[in-house]
Amino acid sequence: MLKDKRYHSACHEAAHAVVCLQVNQTFKCIRLREEIRETNYWGNGIVKSLGRMIPTDETIYRNDAWREAWVSVAGIVFEKLLRPHHSYAFMALFGAALNDYKDAVEWQRYSLYNTEDDREVERILFKYTLPPVRRLVIEHWNDIANIGTLLAQRGELSQTEVEAAMLTKREAANAG
Which domains does the chain carry? Predict the structure, then answer.
């Protein structure tokens, strides 16, 4: 999973999508694209696969901050499970998940009624948000891999396609 960057990025996005569905949130689609980013001092850039989950209008206006925090950290949890020797902070800063971490912190802050205490926000995030999301990602690891494969092939999957991929995998397991 670590060797193919496109597949790796697709699985990262699949983790967001699977957790999103598990907390009864909706999304339009998950997307994968190639993007060149400058990543070093000399600025010669590298090509990197990046993804994005596109929310529905209903999700945007629902104001379920705790659910959004769970969905945001799903990618970081996926990265941490692949590289257990790295800290969550390392994964957020260098594992292409900085935006996920920032979003999770802000959603967590919002769910705590906009507290200004950054340490409290991070304490809550690490104590109450990451552990259950980790359990969800582990429980649905095969779904994430299956959806990641489809996303890497197609470049975009709708919520309906993600749900169908999860159901197909489950039906196959129950039949065998």
Answer: 5-175 (1.20.58.760)
Q: Judge whether 96 and 50 are in contact, CB under 8 Å.
A: yes
Q: Which two tokens stand for residue 14?
A: 């699949």
Check whether 14 has a pLDDT greater than 90: yes
Grouping H, G, I as helix, E, B as strand and the rest as coil, residue 107 is helix
Backbone dihedral angles phi then psi of residue 37, each to the nearest 5 degrees: -130, 145
* Phi-psi label, residue 113: left if phi above 0, alpha if psi -120 to 50, beta otherwise: left
Give the C-alpha separation, 42 to 89, whole Å.
Answer: 25
pLDDT at 35: 60
Instruction: Compute the distance between CA of residue 50 and CA of residue 15 in angstroms, rounded to an integer.
Output: 14
Instruction: Extract long-range pairs of 126-134: CB within 8 Å, 24+ residues apart.
Output: 126/88, 129/66, 129/69, 129/70, 129/73, 129/104, 130/73, 130/77, 130/88, 132/70, 133/19, 133/70, 133/73, 133/74, 133/77, 134/77, 134/80, 134/81
